[in-house]
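Single-chain item
Fold in token form
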Amino acid sequence: MSWSRGVVVAVFVGVLVLVGWAGSGFVAVRDEGGAGRAGGGSAARTAGAGTPDVSRASGAARAEEAARAEEAAAAQAGRRLDRAMAGVRVSGGARFSVAVVPVDDDGAPVAYRGASVFVTASVVKVDVLAALLLGAQDKGRRLTGREREHAAAMIGHSDNASTTTLWEALGGAPGLDAANARFGLTGTTAGAGGLWGLTRTTAVDRIALLRAVFAAGADPELSGESRGYARELMAGVVAGQDWGVSAAGDGEQPAALKNGWLPRGTTGLWVINSTGCVSVDGRRYLLAVLSDGHTSMHEGITLVERVSRGAVGAVAGR
């Protein structure tokens, strides 16, 4: 009798332990998988753990689809640009290059002969300004009053003496090359011997520099204050020097730009360049047109403005 009673007690205790274990498991399944009924614990746990993988896969698929769509749109814009530029007539031995990209687009610019090398003439003054601002930031200071006077004259009036002063202050060609490397320029070489106007560059590199001024990006080298100051100066270029890429804008917002013009001493032919930011149908575009081999300044400006209109129109799909 005592043996039977002991067996009964042992069995009873065992049943309690099993019920308690199952109960704990049931609660854990409800908490983890969100299942609302017993018996669905295992399936609920699997579904709960699998959902993030499904979400990640869906997100990756959407990102891949968006990337393909962007590539297709860029390729289409490139074809439109090629067609538009093929119709641009140039006289004599003149040549040109152009690159354009929306300010809010962090992809590669759409370009026509974008890697062709030209001398900058005075568009390099934007490089000098950006390098000056970057150097001041590195030292934890703002531009001095004197530096601001030179910068305003250099950009707003294309003053050469002010440019030379600032060029020397930032360390000449080595200083400019170092700053441009930080801005992501890869095909630009500062003019040697103090000849800053003979800096060599490409249209694609001009876009990289414009991005440093007009597009914040993920980790910009220039602060918001520095970028705002540079944009303000470029939007205040004096009348008579505001030709060029401004021809591509729709007039709703003024263009912010810097132009360059230079008759080459060896040939007498003109270098005519224009770079900046224009607005079309409420969207802003960074635009760079480089050209040389013109018999006159007027001829060069006419070509640059024709190219500007055609390039932005092609990329905007107008």
User: Anything to note?
Assistant: The chain has nine helices and seven strands. Residues 1-49 have pLDDT under 50 and may be disordered.
